[in-house]
Design goal:
This protein has 219 residues and is α/β, with parallel strands linked by helices. It has a single domain, classed as 3-Layer(aba) Sandwich (Rossmann fold), CATH 3.40.50.150. The strands form two sheets. The chain has a seven-stranded mixed β-sheet. The chain binds S-adenosylmethionine.
Length: 219
């Protein structure tokens, strides 16, 4: 169950960008593995105020992005127009979103803690469906470590993942990188430390397809 609301609505109401406007470091890494080219498409799930989505649009991808916070989408559109790029940004919920489109890159940073337990499996089936063959998925999740205190701006809608849990999804994809990092953050104004698991992987076949070709029903 989700409330359909996020505490980020109020955080994004300020004129200043809560997360700043500089892209996350792994956006450049992603551009290296799947270089921008005309018609290459990206979906940013939980784009916040748009710093990563707008950066990727500036690199030349056609970018679609959504977030539950209306204020975030307004700011993402503002950033895109200030930087002179097109962005298709709208309000949607990671737990229930639907798209008929397929993407070369599906990206989500710092948002999967809002995916409820009962929606996890369905989310990854959807990710498999909406990623083009040889498309890339980059995901990261905050994970629970007994030696780290919860972040001060953590809200009740958020659930930490188990260490390594993310790596068990999309098992038949090609893993380009999996990693676990610990880093300092100052969101909410109080310094704190996060642990994050991240995964960059590539879709190698369509669902139901075997190495020899389309799967056949047992005779
Ligand atoms: C830690 S922020 C990350 C934002 C952005 N990806 C970035 O790195 O700047 C988490 C984001 O998840 C969004 N969010 C919260 N619940 C959501 C939901 N159910 N569906 C989609 N987005 C949600 C929040 O509004 C917020 O923008």
């Amino acid at each position: 169950m989700t409330t359909g609301k996020t505490a980020y609505e109020a955080r994004y109401a300020a004129k200043e960008y809560y997360w700043g406007t500089e892209p996350a470091a792994f956006c450049a890494e992603l551009c290296g593995v799947c270089p921008p080219a005309p018609g290459r498409t990206v979906l940013d799930i939980g784009c916040g105020e748009g710093k990563d989505a707008v950066y990727m649009a500036q690199q030349g991808y056609t970018v679609t992005a959504f977030d539950l916070a209306k204020a975030g989408i307004r700011k993402a559109n503002r950033l895109a127009s200030e930087r002179g790029v097109k962005l298709h940004a709208y309000v949607d919920d990671i737990n229930t979103f639907h798209t008929e489109a397929r993407f070369d890159i599906v990206y989500s940073s710092g948002t999967l803690q809002f995916l409820t337990g009962e929606n996890k499996q369905g989310f990854f089936e959807k990710i498999d469906r909406i990623t083009k063959l040889h498309g890339l998925v980059y995901l990261n999740v905050f994970v629970a470590k007994p030696f780290l205190a919860p972040a001060p701006d953590w809200d009740p809608e958020e659930t930490l993942w188990k260490p390594g849990e993310l790596f068990g999804y999309l098992p038949d994809w090609k893993i380009h990188r999996i990693d676990e990092i610990i880093f300092e953050d100052r969101s909410g104004g109080i310094p704190h430390v996060h642990c994050m698991d991240l995964m960059l992987c590539e879709k190698m076949r369509e669902r139901g397809q075997t190495a020899e070709g389309p799967a056949r029903a047992a005779e």
